[in-house]
Write a structure and sequence with these properties.
Blueprint lengths: L1 E6 L3 H12 L1 H8 L3 E7 L13 E2 L2 H5 L4 E6 L6 H11 L3 E4 L2 H17 L4 E2 L11 H7 L5 E7 L2 H13 L3 H10 L8 H4 L2 H15 L18 H9 L2 E11 L5 E11 L11 E8 L3 E8 L3 H17 L26 E6 L3 H8 L2 E4 L9 E5 L4 H7 L5 E7 L3
Parallel strand pairs: 1-2, 1-4, 2-3, 4-5, 5-6, 9-15
Antiparallel strand pairs: 7-8, 7-10, 8-9, 10-11, 12-14, 12-15, 13-14
Helix pairs in contact: 1-12, 4-5, 5-10, 7-8
The structure holds L-homoserine.
L-homoserine (HSE) binds next to α7.
Length: 404
């Protein structure tokens, strides 16, 4: 029998409580025992909730209760969540989390702590919501040398871009809808500025390449600069704008990871990933390309992945699961300066001048473009080369074009 405590009764935490209750019999059958929710830690009381009587306010109650063997951390952030995770692991309890910020910033040390105490630290829900990606990457693709992981990793920004593309909504109106649907982080800055996608590519890259890759090693741009005119120019050349997190292994073995808006060809499977859906493609030297797709945000999809980890921890009490990686370091990554690409450039510059600066370009057109505005696709070059050529020009948007 396993007894569970949930830390944080927000969107995901309450989803976990609901799934544990609704699917209790099925879960018990699968783990050959039972999984029972004993406590929920939150600052607030929830007198009207069916789980109201399980609320406690003091983590020490959970920490000191030997019956609790699994702690679900759905607080988020890397401060109090880190302290409680450390204390739970040190007390010999397995910890399951959906907290990508904590795993991306401190995953290695928490995994080491879990090993020290013979318990599991599991985080399937931290990337891709309900999409099974962590175990497949660690286990099913283990035979491959992975050369690239690339994905649409943030549901909120994908929802916003989809609504801009499909319904012509402004960025602000689309963000409001995403927040109303409960997809956005408490502070939407983490979504729209790309930090959430950055944390997720850190986790995927650490797993895929075996060393901890930290958020500060991943240059990140979000979607706040994407305009409806960029959407129209992209459409004119059969492309869609998508925020991609990518981690590429160079021939020197070092990882170039980054998060940036990209223009993706209409026929690319990533272009068809809409609304809150996420997709992750992994390129391995035996399997070729493989893609994982599903609901990347939302209460029940995320809870589904958390509860699966809870079941795994319950089933493997005596044989903890280690889904971990090695230490990070400055030798692990390089800035993506040498990753060559075609570029989408929009600027208030006459076409002839852009041609002069950038050489061979494809000129784009859109209805209603003001005079003097110009948008092009360039030939492949590095970002450094592009910036050098455009040094005297004020640019609007500059996005990478995903190669075919
Ligand atoms: N805010 C996140 C997203 C939630 O929109 O993808 C899931 O991690």
């Amino acid at each position: 029998m396993s007894k569970v405590a949930i830390l944080g009764f927000g969107v995901v935490g309450s989803g976990v409580a609901e799934v544990l209750k609704r699917n209790g019999a099925h879960i018990g059958e699968k783990v050959h025992g039972s999984v029972e929710l004993k406590y929920i830690l939150d600052l607030k009381d929830f007198p009207d909730s069916p789980f109201g009587e399980k609320i406690v306010h003091d983590f020490a109650v959970i920490e000191g209760d030997p019956e609790v063997d699994i702690v679900v951390e759905t607080i988020g952030g890397a401060r109090i969540a880190k302290e409680y995770t450390q204390r739970a692991l040190a007390a010999g309890k397995s910890v399951v989390t959906s907290n990508k910020e904590l795993v991306a910033k401190h995953g290695y040390e928490l995994m080491e702590l879990a090993r020290e105490h013979g318990v599991s630290y599991l985080y399937e829900a931290s990337v891709g919501g309900g999409i099974p990606i962590i175990r497949p990457l660690k286990q099913c693709l283990a035979a491959n040398e992975i050369t690239e992981v690339c994905g649409i990793l943030n549901g909120t920004t994908n929802y916003i871009l989809t609504r801009m593309i499909r319904a012509g909504l402004s960025f602000d109106a689309a963000l409001k809808e995403a927040q109303q649907n409960g997809y956005a982080e408490a502070d939407p800055t983490a979504d729209i500025e790309g930090h959430d996608a950055c944390r997720k590519i850190c986790i995927l890259a650490s797993l895929a390449f075996g060393r901890h890759i930290y958020p500060e090693q991943v240059p990140t741009a979000g979607i706040t600069g994407v305009t409806l005119s960029d959407v129209a120019y992209a459409d004119s050349c059969g492309r869609k704008i998508k925020l991609l997190g990518r981690a590429i292994r160079g021939e020197d073995g070092r990882i170039r990871a980054f998060v940036e808006p990209h223009l993706v060809r209409g026929e690319d499977p990533l272009a068809g990933v809409e609304d809150v859906f996420n997709a992750i493609t992994v390129r391995g030297n035996a399997i070729g390309d493989v893609m994982f797709y599903g609901r990347g945000a939302g209460k029940l999809p995320t809870a589904s992945a958390v509860v699966a980890d809870v079941m795994d921890a319950a089933r493997n009490k005596d044989r903890p699961k280690y889904i971990d990686w090695g230490p990070g370091g400055e030798d692990v990554t390089l800035p993506p300066d040498d990753v060559s690409s075609s570029w989408y450039v929009r600027a208030e510059v006459p076409a002839d001048r852009l041609r002069q600066l950038l050489g061979d370009v494809t000129l784009l057109a859109r209805a209603g473009a003001p005079g003097g505005e110009c948008a092009v696709l360039t030939a492949p070059m590095t970002r450094g080369e592009l910036d050098r050529r455009l040094s005297e020009v004020e640019t609007g948007s500059v996005f990478r074009v995903l190669e075919d």
